[in-house]
Design a protein that fits this description.
- The complex is a heterodimer of chains A (about 260) and B (about 260).
- In chain A, helix 3 packs antiparallel against helix 8.
- Chain A has one domain: MetI-like fold (Orthogonal Bundle).
- Helix content of chain A is about 85%, strand content about 0%.
- With about 260 residues, chain B is mostly helical.
- In chain B, helix 3 packs antiparallel against helix 8, helix 6 packs antiparallel against helix 8 and helix 8 runs antiparallel to helix 10.
- Classes of the chains: A mainly alpha (about 260), B mainly alpha (about 260).
Chain lengths: ~260, ~260
């Protein structure tokens, strides 16, 4: 999209959020809002500046992002590896399919009490839960990707009598790399969701804990500042990964659009 | 073909049995303390006791009811609002970007806000479930309407259909595959949020029950609860994909 069309369509897109903020501010000023659950946009902005200035917001953000990133790498890595193996060896796929289908629907939040009991609170517990949550989706995506690799590439690798590692590194991985990146992109958004959920439910650190504490201390402005910040981070991660995907795999992105 | 799937079934069952055996061996050898990690027999015993007169059955029903109510609410509101926004090009241009901006917001981040307004109540959990499950259906409906074959809109103009008729007769059926896929995603989200909501607000249900079991180190009850949650998720998604196939049969024939 060129700059001029962005400008032309941009005002339409921006109208609704701007109008909502203005209406909220006017309503808050007119009613002279004093509330334990609502805050005016100006108060929210002020609260945002103050939690930003004392460093608590940045520290919480770092905690959350660190857990999400490590969990994402571990979960997608292990899941993709398993998925590739299942995609390559039909016998492994047949054998494990039933077990995976039975384990997959367990909601990841149900594992919070188990991991909490085994590991206690802290970053480690959060990372384990995030990677467990990302494991199955990555397995499924990688398995499909490997099964859709051009069969002639596999024939070539058979003819060249490549060993397993050679076949993996030289033929399969390059062929499924775009799909793996897509899987990582989906996983990154999900990792943030799981991280915040774990923090809100149990783990006393990070953004989820911050927003929960702001609510319990009856500081609505701070609570909404956290909420908007969490949304902004999720949005930013999505935008950055989309940009990276377009940069690394332009052909694949075009195919996705089609 | 039949031979092949039989082989798959046998292999699958064998692996499952092997998996349970390894689980049993690990716990029998006490590699992990039995306080934290119960063996399969203890889990099964807790499951049987809980379902035949214990609290587990009522808790399951509570959670399933919560999940279904929130999901139904989200489905109706999502498809209805999505239709209103999706049918008009102008509404799409003004409203859709804001919705896309809100989508990456984790639904669980809305829990503190919901608590601030509604307190620790059943309604709070319901609102959180409905809000979280709303997004996939809302956006799928809008996208489905936007992706409708433009000629169908022209046909509807020629036939002089009213806006309501266009939605009901043309746009909804053509957006149906996307909407049905989003319903399945929404059900998964509903189950997750039902469990989280119960954990946080201490509402009766499986979420609260497994958290309490973990706090008092009743690991067998905890695992029994997880098994049931997995079963609920499995049955829900299977039923929906079955319904999906039935409803979309006309499309498979057309292709």
């Amino acid at each position: 999209m060129s700059a001029s069309t962005l400008f032309k369509n941009g005002w339409r897109a921006a109208l609704l959020p701007v109008a909502l903020v203005v209406i909220a501010q006017v309503a808050a000023t007119v009613t002279q809002l004093e509330s334990d659950s609502l805050a005016s946009p100006l108060d929210i902005a002020r609260a945002f500046v103050s939690v930003m200035a004392d460093g608590s917001l940045l520290r919480a953000t770092l905690d959350t992002l660190k857990a999400a990133a490590i969990g994402c790498v571990v979960g997608v890595g292990a899941g993709s590896l398993l998925g590739i193996v299942l995609g390559l060896f039909r016998i492994a796929d047949d054998a494990l399919d039933l077990t995976i289908e039975l384990l997959r629907p367990i909601p990841v939040v149900a594992l919070i009490p188990v991991v909490m009991m085994l590991l206690g609170f802290g970053a480690k517990m959060e990372i384990v839960i995030i990677s467990l949550g990302l494991l199955w989706p990555s397995v499924v995506l990688a398995r499909v990707a490997v099964k859709e690799v051009e069969p002639r590439l596999m024939e070539v690798s058979n003819m060249l009598q490549l060993g397993f590692t050679d076949r993996l590194v030289k033929i399969v991985l390059p062929a499924v790399l775009p799909q793996l990146f897509m899987s990582l992109k989906l996983a990154a958004g999900y990792a943030l969701v799981v991280a915040v959920t774990v923090e809100i439910t149990a783990n006393p650190l990070g953004l989820g804990y911050g927003i929960m504490m702001a609510q319990q201390a009856l500081r609505p402005a701070e609570m909404f500042a956290y909420l908007i910040w969490i949304g902004a981070i999720g949005w930013l991660i999505g935008v950055l990964l989309n940009m990276a995907q377009r940069g690394f795999f332009p052909a694949f992105v075009k195919g996705e659009r089609r | 073909m039949k031979n092949f799937s039989l082989r798959k079934l046998l292999l699958g069952c064998a692996t499952l049995v092997l998996f349970i055996l390894v689980w049993k061996l690990v716990t029998d050898a006490k590699l992990i303390s039995p306080i934290f990690f119960p063996g399969p027999e203890r889990t099964y015993a807790a499951l049987e006791k809980g379902l035949s007169g214990g609290a587990l059955l009522t808790q399951t029903l509570e959670t399933v009811q919560r999940m279904l109510l929130g999901w139904l609410l989200a489905s109706f509101v999502g498809v209805f609002l999505g239709s209103l926004v999706g049918i008009s090009k102008r509404a799409r241009a003004f409203i859709a970007p804001t919705l896309e901006l809100l989508r990456p917001l984790p639904a669980s981040a809305m829990i503190p806000i919901a608590i601030a307004f509604l307190g620790f109540s059943d309604n709070m959990v319901l609102v959180v479930i409905a809000f979280g499950a709303l997004w996939p259906m809302l956006l799928a409906t809008i996208h489905g309407f936007a992706a409708m074959e433009p000629r169908l809109y022209e046909v509807s103009a020629v036939l002089g259909l009213s806006r309501g008729q266009v939605i009901w007769k043309l746009a909804l059926p053509s957006a149906m595959p996307m909407i049905l896929a989003s319903l399945r995603l929404g059900l998964t989200i509903s189950l997750i949020l039902a469990v989280v909501g119960e954990m946080l607000a201490s509402r009766a249900g499986l979420g609260q029950s497994i958290l309490a079991a973990s706090r008092s180190f009743r690991s067998a009850d905890l695992f029994a609860g997880i098994v049931i949650l997995g079963a609920v998720g499995l049955v829900g998604s299977r039923l929906l994909s079955f319904g999906e196939r039935r409803l979309l049969r006309w499309q498979a024939v057309n292709r």
